[in-house]
Amino acid sequence: MERHWTSVLSLSTGGPAVPLEWAVSCVVGRALRGGATDMFAALGAHPWAYPMLEVVHILGIGLLLGNLVLLELRVFGFASDLPVASLARLSLAIAGLGFAMATASGLLMFATQAEELLANRAFTAKMLLLMLAGCNAGWFHGRRSLQRLDGGAKALMVASTVIWLLVLTCGRWIAYV
Questions:
Q1: Residues 83 and 136 in one domain
Q2: Which of the residues 60, 78, 160, 169 could staple to 73 if both were Cys, CB 3.0 to 4.6 A apart?
């Protein structure tokens, strides 16, 4: 019997194969019947689940920004006895973890009040700034700035910090706009 990737979700786990169509139809069907909406509404109304998402979001932001600032300080010459490559490997890995935490928790928080957030100008500005931060990071790493440590690298690091501070500001303003 020929198996196709669309008909089997996983053959590598050693467990029973789950048809992909069945898994997708369960998720999509539940969402179409309002199950996802109900789930996210319950998440938003839960006495401690939503506040814990906020805690995870803030912790992720702290890990992200703290490590980016640490790396920026090294690029600007502080702690010059630390090798940039070693510090970058560690700080960017932790910053990536922080970004993943902030993204996952942010998406769940968004799902609980998507309509309100889409109408909020501070939220829109935050999303645009996040895209700009991604472009800045892509440019920074694409030009191999950590190896060059030139004026361009320093300018992109300052731009990164400014963008992330604006992301934080917009994130705080969401509740008040």
A1: yes
A2: 78
